[in-house]
Structure formats: structure tokens, C-alpha cells
Design goal:
- The protein has helices at about 10-20, 35, 40-60, 65-80, 85-100, 105-120, 125-135, 140-155, 155-165, 175-185, 190-200, 205-225, 225-240, 245-260, 260-275, 280-290, 295-310, 320-330, 335-345, 350-360, 365-375, 385-395, 400-410, 415, 420-430.
- The protein is mostly helical.
- Among the domains are: about 170-255, Alpha Horseshoe (Serine Threonine Protein Phosphatase 5, Tetratricopeptide repeat); about 320-430, Tetratricopeptide repeat domain (Serine Threonine Protein Phosphatase 5, Tetratricopeptide repeat, Alpha Horseshoe), CATH 1.25.40.
Length: about 425
């Protein structure tokens, strides 16, 4: 998530800080070159070995629920490593088979199905599974924590906070990271960082949780303008796990957005693209091409992304990006409006309504865009792209004072928005 808390800081202070930070290049390839030279992903190799073990066990005892559960879990884990959506869907099928065959319903199975639903952005289905898990009762705390996650994704912060009230231990890692999520969504990034730092201290002896917490903290540092700390945190993650491509992606963004070293950003992106089957690297490569004024390469990468992302197997996972592309690149804002309405049905968050307002704006329906913005977006999200859209919508409706306010707020997150949008905001403020 990309949220900010600059409301109490003057714009002049922000500008001064950013100007000084941009004079120093942060990314140094020598720091991570060893990780780009790796031809084999050890984590994926180990996952495949373990998966083969459980496949063999299941072939020996085809009706074993235990072996099916193990295999389903390994398929879900492998998806996080290779990005092949077929793995998460195969995991779903196994879990569903177990649920339909077992005489006793287990909450853990519904939590596993909920986790897979979250991965595929099927948040309403995820909440249904979690509610079922809560009805069963076993592992109630784990179910409640997942309920917090889903409520946040659905924009129901009140529901998330109500679930959090049921926990007495306010210093426990699962509690701290969700409290940090809520603070971030509320625009209180400073508090979110403090909470995530506390959470990280608790899991230094747990490799998987440490990597997750450290990489999320790196994201937050970047969002707060603490880019050097973000970079160092990503390097710390890679030192622990050289195959943690999420950290490499974070470094690629720093090279692109902060250092504006487009060649290095592309080099890292191509490395990740070769390892993972997800289409998102095409979006990043398109953004780099746009910054290089290479329109042909940009359109090529956007088409590569869109051709993959619209496949039925991905469902609604990439709706946000497809909606933005239709409005901004493919001159089809009516399609943006159509996708936005689907997103609003799936998850009525301010970000989903932002897509609708942006579709109206690009379709020339300025009054409709303003109505949606004022009712569903303003003061309800601190995402930089939504703030930028608010500025554009207010300006188009002749409300210059409000437009400038939102452009200034968006300008404070130039690192998150990237060079292209940051340039547009600067032009609007200087016009």
C-alpha cells in the first residue's frame, strides 16, 4: 500500500528534504550483483523436492486427507515463488475436495481457502470462508486475524478495528502488523512504521516472518521518504534470502524513481521477469519506457501485460491496472468505468471509487467525476495516485484552490508516484 502522512509538514520542508535526497544516488549494483547472477532459485528447488515427496505419498494412499492438505499447502507456497496462477488454483481444488469429502469440517481448511482467495483478490469469498472458520471455532485467534486482513481489503476499517478489540495481547506480532496496516490506511504512516519496527524485533529468529516484516518495513520507509533506509532494508532481506525477488523489485523501484537510473531498473526487472510468471513486470518496464520517452517500447510492454492479465484464470486480480490502462493509454474510458463498477461490487473501497471517478474524468464527465470524488474518495484515502486524481478532477471543475491542495499532497509522494506523474504534478503546480 502506498500511503502518506505529510499533512502537518509544510510543503517547503518537504521540498527541501526531497531536493537534498535526490542529489545522492542510493542504488549501487555492487551491493546486490551477486543476487542477479543466480541461475537457480534454491527456495523453489526445495519447494519442488518437498512437493514431489507429498505427491509420492499421496499416490501411495490416494484417499489420505493429510497428504492432500500437505500438497495443497505446497502448491500455494510455490505460487509465491514462481507466480504461476495454476498452482494456487490447483491448491484451491485440493482444499475444496477435502472439504467436500470430510465428515468433520475444519476451520484450518477454511482459513487456507480464505488465504488463497485473498491471493486472487476474491475478498468477499475470503470473508465467507473466515466466517465459516469462526463458526467452527477451532483456532479462533487465527481466524480473527484473517478477518482483520479481509476487512481492510474490503475497506471496512470499522470491522477490522472491532475484530482487533477481541485481542488482549497488544504486543503480539500478528496484532502489531495488523495495527500497522490500519494506521497506514488511516494515513498515519509514522505510527505504522513504529509498530512494524516493534513487530520486526519479535521475529528476528523466525526467517520467514523476518523477511516478510523487513520487506514491508522497507516499503514503508520508502513511502515516508526514508529511501536510504528502504534500500538498506531490502539489502538486509536479500542477505537472508538471495531469492527474495520482492526485495529486488523494491531496489529496482529506487533505481527508477529516486536515482532515475533507468538502465539499472530495467536490468533488475528483466532478471525478475525471467523467474516469475506474473505479468506485473511488463507494467514496470512500460513505466520505465515512458520515462525514457520510448513510446513504441511502452506500448509493447503494456500490450504484453494486458494480453496476459485479461486471461480468465486471473479473474479480477489485475482489474485496477487494466482500468487505468484503458483510460490513460488505450483511450477507452468507458471500459474503465465498466471495470470500476466490478471492483466496487467486489470491494467498495475508496480506491475502487477512485477508478470510477478517473473513468468519468477521462470520459469527459467532469460533474460525475466530482460527485464520486467528494462522496467516496475525499478524506477517505491517502494513496498518492488518488490524491493526484483528486487534483485533476477539482481543476477540471474550476475548483483551483482544492486542486492545488491535492497536487501539493501528491507531490509529497513523488518517490511513490514515479517520474512521469511527478512531472505532471509539477507542471500543474507551476502553471
Amino acid at each position: 500500500m502506498r500511503t502518506i502522512l505529510f499533512f502537518l509538514i509544510s510543503l517547503s520542508t518537504i521540498t527541501c528534504i526531497r531536493c537534498s535526497s535526490l542529489t545522492e544516488k542510493i542504488v549501487h549494483p555492487a551491493d546486490y550483483e551477486i543476487y542477479l547472477g543466480r541461475k537457480y532459485d534454491e527456495a523453489l528447488k526445495e519447494c519442488n523436492v518437498e512437493m514431489d515427496f507429498w505427491k509420492h505419498k499421496l499416490s501411495e494412499v490416494p484417499e489420505s486427507e493429510t497428504y492432500r492438505i500437505k500438497l495443497a499447502g505446497m502448491l500455494a507456497s510455490r505460487f509465491t515463488l514462481n507466480g504461476r496462477i495454476e498452482d494456487i488454483q490447483a491448491s484451491d481444488s485440493l482444499y475444496q475436495l477435502i472439504v467436500s469429502n470430510t465428515k468433520q469440517d475444519y476451520a484450518s481448511l477454511h482459513r487456507a481457502l480464505a488465504a488463497n482467495c485473498i491471493t486472487q483478490h476474491q475478498f468477499r469469498e475470503a470473508r465467507a470462508h473466515i466466517q465459516k472458520a469462526l463458526e467452527i471455532g477451532e483456532g479462533k485467534a487465527a481466524s480473527l486475524y484473517m478477518l482483520v486482513d479481509v476487512n481492510i481489503e474490503l475497506g471496512d476499517l470499522a470491522g477490522a478495528k472491532n475484530a482487533m478489540k477481541q485481542f488482549s495481547n497488544k504486543k503480539f506480532f500478528p496484532y502489531l502488523i495488523r495495527k500497522a496496516k490500519i494506521k497506514d490506511h488511516e494515513g498515519n504512516l509514522d505510527s505504522a512504521i513504529v509498530l512494524m519496527e516493534r513487530a520486526l524485533d519479535q521475529v528476528k529468529e523466525n526467517p520467514s516472518l523476518f523477511l516478510w516484516a523487513q520487506s514491508n518495513l522497507a516499503d514503508m520507509y520508502g513511502h515516508a521518504g526514508r529511501v536510504k533506509e528502504s534500500y538498506d532494508s531490502y539489502l538486509s532481506v536479500l542477505k537472508q534470502n538471495p531469492d527474495y525477488d520482492y526485495a529486488l523489485k523494491g531496489i529496482a523501484w529506487i533505481a527508477f524513481s529516486h536515482d532515475q537510473n533507468f538502465q539499472e531498473a530495467k536490468r533488475i526487472a528483466h532478471h525478475i521477469e525471467q523467474k516469475r510468471a506474473t505479468p506485473d513486470m511488463h507494467l514496470f518496464l512500460a513505466e520505465i519506457a515512458g520515462a525514457e520517452n520510448n513510446r513504441i517500447e511502452k506500448l509493447k510492454q503494456l500490450e504484453l501485460f494486458a494480453n496476459v492479465a485479461v486471461a480468465p484464470k486471473y479473474g479480477d486480480m489485475y482489474n485496477k491496472y487494466l482500468a487505468l490502462l484503458e483510460a490513460e493509454e488505450f483511450s477507452n474510458p468507458s471500459k474503465t468505468i465498466e471495470i470500476a463498477r466490478i471492483e466496487i461490487r467486489n470491494r467498495p473501497t475508496p480506491q475502487s471509487f477512485d477508478l470510477l471517478a478517473w473513468g468519468y474524468f477521462n470520459n469527459g464527465n467532469m460533474a460525475d467525476a466530482l460527485a464520486v470524488a467528494q462522496k467516496y474518495i475525499e478524506n477517505k484515502t491517502y494513496e498518492p495516485d488518488a490524491l493526484y486524481h483528486l487534483g485533476m478532477i477539482y481543476q477540471a471543475n474550476g475548483m483551483e484552490k482544492e486542486a492545488i491542495r491535492y497536487f501539493k499532497l501528491a507531490a509529497a509522494s513523488s518517490f511513490e508516484l514515479g517520474p512521469a506523474i511527478s512531472k505532471k504534478i509539477k507542471e500543474r503546480l507551476n502553471s
